[in-house]
Amino acid sequence: MHLAQVIADEAVRPAGALIAIAVGAIAVLLFLIIKLKFHAFYSLIIVSVLTAFAAGVNVGDLLGVIQTPFGTTLGNVALLIGFGAVLGRVIEISGGAQVLADSLIRRFGDKRAPFALSLASFLFAFPIFLDAGFIVMLPIIYQVARRLKGSLLLYALPATGAFLTMHGLVPPHPGPTAAAGIVGVDVGLVVLVSVLVAIPVYLLSGPVVGTAIAKRMPHFAVPNLLGEAKDRSDEKLPSFWLVIFLLLLPLVLIFLNTGAAALATNGTIPDDTAVYAILTTVGATPIALLITSILAIILLIVVPNWGSVGKRMEDVVDDALGPIASILLITGAGGMFGGVLTATGIGAVLADGLNDLGLPLIVAAFAIAAIMRVAQGSATVATTTAASLIAPAVAAAGDLSPLQLALIVVAMGAGGISLSHVNDSGFWLVSRFLGLSTKDALKSWSVISTVVGFSAFAIVGVVYLFT
């Protein structure tokens, strides 16, 4: 039975009670983590259980209510994080991260290194989800920070602005892609509009706001989550173009998936052919990262160390997967908390209220998505739900141009990526890999996500007025 249906069958809470449950749950969670220094994993589980009970879930349904979103979240991110961590570790220990760091510093200079990393992240994030892209870029960010002896946040936060922008606004990321289909606008037009919006939004949220936040925060050392760094000046380093190939390979494979889906939609490639099946399989993000990580092990570990391959491969994978166990559990627990909040119905209650206010369509689209984001955490769910709720109003309007529809879709993506906080699994993933406390993550990651969303909405809102 669906999670929301379990609670709906058990009890119906008044709107005021639902709002109080959600606000109280978030307040208790922040108190446990920030004030009492309770571990985030246990805090999230405890608050999720208490919230489920408060929402009316009985004891017999409790495990299903909390385990379903936990398992769904891990199912979505565990393979991405695992394969991405192995790929990052291989690039790190082989010297590939040092090669890329040296190249970036040589081309852009020390002072522009944060911008160079954010620009690389912006391009890298076009076809690949935030979680996977961030994990793959992480060893390069670590290496540049070590090399230049600067605070990790100075190099990482501008990159997070890039990943947030692309993930929230631009197809083929799932939120805006699903919203385009629900509203009934051509995805190609949404890509064009969203990319034009994403460029200034990225420049503001990443290089400007991300850098400014990093400079105001204390110095953050690079953690050893991907293993200890070592000086490789006397070693033979891999080719720059080999490392670039390994970083671009998952993007190319994912593009094959996206292209095949587009060709199937217009009838060029039937979706029941072997070609379509192969392209969509190897282009699925987990498979693309699996293929790339295996190739990286072969080309960067096996070939240069032919005499001692077996033990070295085992050590590399163990070193990569060991440190991320806590991150995976916290990420899953964050998804659990978001799932339980979704089941309370708080997002739906507020969204229905906004629908009844008679706001302009583009304002209502943004506001509903933002409220859903605050209520349940997932940008994809927030954007998709907003599209479902706004679609009847769009159909009733009848006279909206394709450009206006595309702007509405981008507005929903902007609302969906805003206001990330403790019920967002990405919040925990990024904060743990950067060594941020919950309070520091709220002051940095949450602010950047909000800048991305509100600046994107400001741009599409102004354009909408003149269309």
Number of helices: 22
The largest sheet, given as strand count, sense and whether it forms a barrel, is:
none
Distance between the amino and carboxyl termini: 44 Å
Level of helix content? over 70%
* Count of distinct strands: 0
Helix/strand structural class:
mainly alpha
Work out the radius of gyration.
Answer: 22 Å
H/E topology pattern: HHHHHHHHHHHHHHHHHHHHHH
**Low-pLDDT residue spans:** 1-11
| Shape annotation | globular
Question: Which range does the strand content fall in?
Answer: under 5%
Name the average pLDDT. Answer: 80
Question: What do these coordinates show?
Answer:
This protein has 467 residues and is an all-alpha fold. Among the domains are: 3-71; 73-164 and 229-325, no CATH class. 78% of the residues lie in helices and 0% in strands. It has 22 helices and no strands. It has helices at residues 3-10, 15-35, 40-54, 59-93, 96-108, 113-124, 130-148, 152-169, 174-183, 187-216, 240-265, 274-282, 285-302, 309-321, 325-344, 346-355, 361-376, 379-397, 402-417, 425-434, 438-443, 445-465. Helix 5 (96-108) packs across helix 7 (130-148) and helix 10 (187-216) packs across helix 22 (445-465). The longest helix has 35 residues, at 59-93. It is globular, with a radius of gyration of 22 Å. The two termini are 44 Å apart.
